[in-house]
Write a structure and sequence with these properties.
371 residues, Metal_Hydrolase, alpha/beta, TIM Barrel, 8-stranded parallel beta sheet, EC 3.5.4.4, metal ion binding, two-stranded antiparallel ribbon, A_deaminase_dom, Ado/ade_deaminase
Length: 371
């Protein structure tokens, strides 16, 4: 399958871009339009390696394809640099939602770390309010263009800092006003969720949902801590959970697998895996299995009944979209529309929404795929 000049592909006669999608793992500072960065850079005092939007998109793609999460994260200096004023935050959030809607997303959760956007003198509440304003403007613009989309914020605390509890309290204070959940992000290896047990205890007492970056740059201990210390309802990536599966025998399409206790727990409790195929390849998260999308343990996890979802992680750094990610999986594993629908239904079931709204989302997905 190939992507056309409009970023679309077709499967069984249906446009992949036109399919209703749910995006659970999508970073705001990882989805800034390169043209917008170029336009805002001078006033923001950000030095760019190139001064053209297309060339900057190429630069992000090249630097993002490093095989290292640490190197991958360095590219965010440019995007975060232009996101330090209210006006810029609102614009970036608005364009982010418009891009989601153009990709066929009907429900999305955008994650970002407010503490990284205070250099211009704004407070934590100021930046959350600015992003929320942009989200609502983007939703209105999408509606005017004939597309329906709803987007909620996931507040991320940076796991290498001392402000995670403060950010958890910020997230809870914005419940019902646009914020739907909490996350910790940043360098995973060496910073177990257990370091922030106090913040997660607080969130649990407030019955506030959490997803935790785990199993991307670190292994099973990180995932275990996300579940036990972070009370994670979803795993941000979680791809290295596959190392708790021992493939005993392969015979054609049949695979005999021995489950570790951790993998069985995640599978049996339907804990959502926020997998991001292109990003997982770029950051080296799947290096234990290979160096191509075909080597990604996505299909193994799917066939074994895990609640797998498809995500972009960072649209700009990975130069991707949900449409493209689905197309890559179709090419790699021969999926049909039924498989793609299953991924969206998993994402809808894992969304941080009340059950009635998740059921409505599931109905919209079923109707869109059945059209």
């Amino acid at each position: 399958m190939s992507i056309d000049q409009h970023g679309d592909a077709r499967l069984e006669g249906m446009s992949l871009r036109g399919l209703p999608k749910v995006s659970l793992h999508d970073h705001l500072d990882g989805g800034v339009r390169p043209d917008t960065i170029v336009e805002l850079a001078d006033a923001a005092g950000v030095d760019l390696p190139v001064d053209d939007g297309d060339d900057l998109a190429d630069w992000f793609a090249e630097k993002g394809d490093s095989g290292s999460l640490v190197e991958y994260l360095k590219t965010f200096d440019l995007t975060i640099g232009v996101m330090q004023t209210r006006e810029n935050l609102t614009r970036v959030a608005r364009e982010f939602v418009e891009d989601l809607a153009a990709d066929g997303v009907i429900y999305g959760e955008v994650r970002w770390a407010p503490e990284q956007h205070l250099a211009g003198g704004l407070s934590l509440d100021d930046v959350v309010d600015a992003v929320q304003e942009g989200i609502e403007e983007g939703e209105d613009a999408a509606e005017a263009a004939g597309r329906d989309i709803r987007v909620g914020q996931l507040i991320s605390g940076m796991r290498q800092t001392e402000r995670v509890r403060e950010l958890a309290e910020l997230a809870v204070s914005w419940r019902g006003r646009g914020v739907v959940g909490f996350d910790i992000a940043g360098p995973e290896d060496g910073y177990l969720p257990a370091l922030h047990r106090d913040a997660f205890d607080y969130l649990a007492r407030e019955f506030f949902p959490t997803t935790v970056h785990a199993g991307e740059a670190a292994g099973l201990d990180s995932i275990r801590s996300a579940l036990l210390d972070g009370r994670a309802l979803r795993l941000g990536h979680g791809v290295r959970l596959a190392s708790d599966l021992n493939v005993i025998e392969r015979s054609g399409e049949e695979v005999m697998v021995q489950f570790g206790d951790l993998a069985r727990w995640v599978r049996d409790r339907e804990i959502t895996l926020e997998l991001s195929p292109s990003s997982n390849l770029q950051t080296g998260a799947i290096e234990a299995w290979g160096t191509a999308i075909e080597d990604h343990p996505f299909d193994l996890l799917y066939q074994l009944g895990f609640s797998v979802t498809v995500n972009v992680d960072n649209r700009t750094m990975s130069r991707t979209s949900l449409t493209r990610e689905l197309s890559l999986l179709v090419d790699a594993f021969g999926y049909d529309l039924g498989d793609l629908e299953a991924f969206q239904l998993n994402a809808a079931a894992g969304a941080f929404l009340p059950v009635e709204e998740r059921e409505e989302l599931i109905e919209l997905i079923a109707a869109g795929f059945g059209a």
